[in-house]
Structures are given as structure tokens and as C-alpha cells.
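User: My advisor asked me to double-check a structure prediction for Glycosyltransferase RgtA/B/C/D-like domain-containing protein before group meeting. I don't want to rely on an old file, so could you generate it fresh from this sequence?
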Amino acid sequence: MSARTDRLVYAAALVLGVLPLWVSSHLPMVDLPQHLHLISVLHRLDDPTTLYPQLFAARHELTPYLGYYYAVSALNWLLPLDLANRLFLSAYVVGLPLSLAFLLRGLGRPTWPSLLSLPLAYGDSFGWGFINYLAALPLALLCCGLFLRALADTGRRRAWAIGLAACLVSVLLFHVQAFAFLGLALPWLLLTTPVPEDAGAKGLKSRLQPRLPALLGVVPGVALFLSWVVLRLGQPAEVETGAPWKAWGPMLSSQNLAWKSFAQNRTELIEVLANLLRDGSDRWPVYAVGAVAACALVLGLVRAADTADSGGLVARLRLPGLVVLALGFFFLLPFDIRGYIYYLNTRYAQLAAVLAVASVPVTLPSLRRPLLWASAGCALLLALVLGRGFRAFSREASEWDALIEATAQKPRVMGLIFASGSRVVRHPVFLHGASELARARGGSTNFSFALTPHSPLRYRGTPPPTFASEWRPHDFDYATQGPAYDHFLVRGVHPSRVFGARLQQELAVAAQSGESWLVRRR
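Assistant: Sure, here is a fresh prediction for Glycosyltransferase RgtA/B/C/D-like domain-containing protein from the sequence you gave:
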């Protein structure tokens, strides 16, 4: 078998990795309806057939979430929004192993372990719909690979540095957490990567000069980050102790930081890598990845001497050092910085796992093809398991489709989701169902990411009245909040328990499907 066959196997594994995204009409991601509604608003901000022009305006300032929203909005000019979003998600899933392979090649290591990252593309962050963070991960790995080349590739340092500058800015425009990881990862690579000129270098200047292109490559991203920090921290925080989505005190004060215990983090480190499906079947591809990595570990420990990853012991520790950094972020950071960043430390479990499977010892060249095929087998198992699970969820989520048919144009939809859970997936994927109805008919909802400072949109005036958190529909007060809406999506309880006698007077059930009811004004 030739290298061409290996490339075909690798390509087939990439196709299998994205297959679950294309076999169902609905994807099990909690925040996805909110994201798509916001992108729809951004794309159709001047469309008079929607409510968007009168309710929303562009937020003309730097925010780290611009990358995803504007990228999919641009694709939306060519493709329907759902298709554009699936294409973007596919680029993320494929980009994870490809960028990891680019990093491995820059380290002088074989690239087959990059395929082991495919099952790790899905997991807790995917289930929550943290698409901005997910998209930043391949870019962060790409930055590391570009930084290595800007250091060591003597003939093309300037070109790699220019690519590094563009890539690092892109990371920040997608998500600041990936950028924060690079704040330690790039210095680590700088300190541990030898350059050819070191052999005859004398003095600090002669050592610094060949590293200058790489250092200059990070300047635009760092400058943009500092300007964003000044802008973000210069805004007054809304301190409201005990209120959801509000700061409970000064940014880094003890009352504003929520921590998980070391024991809880230790338990969740593996769990969050595959926790989408209730039957637990999505764990099997991750277990298969662990088995392949374990085989590579054993085979690598008994291998004969090879020349991969030259540069001595320190250079061989570059990739394991990145794993340690990611684990440090996972174990040492708080879970929430209220009012600023939520679900902070848990997201780094995925990055640590991706780097860990890539850190398996280098094996004998004759063993790399069987390990490549085994890695592709993990992708096949992933496609079978998640494809089945995603299709089952899509059948369950088809209740949204029936309700959309009964939704009027330009609706103002109140979401009252008393049962946000699914029979198929673990995450509360029905929480933002109101956004599905609003997007389909060019309307608005009671909860929108336009309320958040990281959104490229804002409300033109006062946001519509609603209860403090979408998680607390029991706090809904019809007298003060209800009149602002003409549609109500109720899930988990019968509407009569929410509206009482009003259901027979000013309101009526327009449609019922699954566990959801659509209530409209008469």
C-alpha cells in the first residue's frame, strides 16, 4: 500500500467525522437556536418583512464572537442559513485533525494521531452549542504550528509570521478562551524550540534575531486583545448579587468567582469528552481512541531509536508541555466569572484531551499504517453512533416544525420551557425553542444573545420584558411581561396551568406537538 492509500484513508475518516452533522434536520446543541436567530437578524437587519429593523441595531465595536456570526452570515448569501451553519461546523470538525496534523508536522512527528481527535470534536462544548469556542480550537492549534515554522523554517520565516499574525487575530475574533491558552502556549514553544542559528550564536542579540519574525507575528493579536480588554473592562459592570447573568461583585472578587472542587473537576475531565447521548453510546468512540492511544504508547515505549522530533529532551517535551498547560487551565481556573465569562474551566478538558492523544510516543515507521487504520476505525464508529443518535433527536425535535407552521409572521415569542430536556440527548436542548419559531417567521424572543456584550447586535431601545433567567419560567408574570408578546411557546406543562382563564379569553392554543404547545392571541 502506498502513501496515496494512506491519504485516502485519512480523507475517508474526515468524511466519517462530519457525517453526523448531515444525517438529521436538527442538531442537538443547546445554544444553536439562539445563534441561528442572531445570525438571521444580522443578515436581514434591513428586511422590512421582519421585526428586525425596528428592534435591533448593529453593535459597532470589537467583540470576540464576531468570527462565527459574520462567517456564517457571509455564507448565508450563497446558501440557506441552516446549510451554511452545517458547512461551518463541518469545517470545524475537519479543521481539528488537520490543524493538529499541521502542528505535529511542525514538531517533526508523524501525523496519524491527528485522526484520534475526531471523536473529541463532539462532547460537552458541542452539546451546549459553544460554537464560537469550538471554532477557535483548530485556529489555536494552527497558530502553534505557524509559530513553530516562523521559528525554525529559515527560508520562509516572514511568510509564516504573516500567517501567524492573521491566524492569531482570528482566534481572538472567535473566542477569548482559546486566545488565553495561546498566551502561555506560544511562550512555552518559544522557550523550548531550537532554531538552526543557535549552533553558532553568541550573545542575546544573535539568539533573538532569528526569533524576531515569530515575535512580531503575535503583535497584531496582542494589540487587538489589549484594546478589547480596555474596552470591556472600561464598561461599568451591572452588579446584582444573586441575579443570573449579572456580576455579584468586582470582576475577580471572591463573591464573583464560582469554583468547582478538584474532585469534581477530576471526575468531569473524562465525562465531558462524551456526554451527548443518554444511552452513553457516544462514549464508545472515545474509548476506542483511548485504546489506540494506549497501543501507541506501549509500542512507542518499546520502539527502536528514531529521528522524529529532533532537538533533544526539551524539544521532545513541547507537546506534553502543551497538555500540562491545558490541564492547568482546567483544574486551576474558576467555573464562572459572573457577568463576564461562564462555563470557563470545563471547556479546556477537550483541548487537553486533543493534545494528549497527539502526544503518544513516536512508534516504528512500520507500525504507523496499522495505527492510521485503527484511528480511521474510531471515526467509523463515531459516524455510526452519533449518526443514529442525532437522527433520533431530530425526530424528537420535529415538534418545532409543526409549531412553526402555526406561527404568524413577525411574531413576538415568549419561551416558557418547563421541560428543556430530551429523551435522546443529555443537554437541555429544548431550552431555546422559541428562537426556532422566531427565526422561521422573522420575529423576536424574550431571550436573545443581543442582550450580551459579546454580540454583534443590540436592542434599539429597551429590551422586551421577561423573567430573570430562561431557566426560571416559574417566575413568569403575565400582567407585567405577557402583554409584550403575541405568541407563547410552552413546553412541559399544559398551558392552562400557566395562563388559567386567559386561555379561553384572550389566548388560544394554536398547535400542539410532542411536549410543546403554541399559544397565540385571539
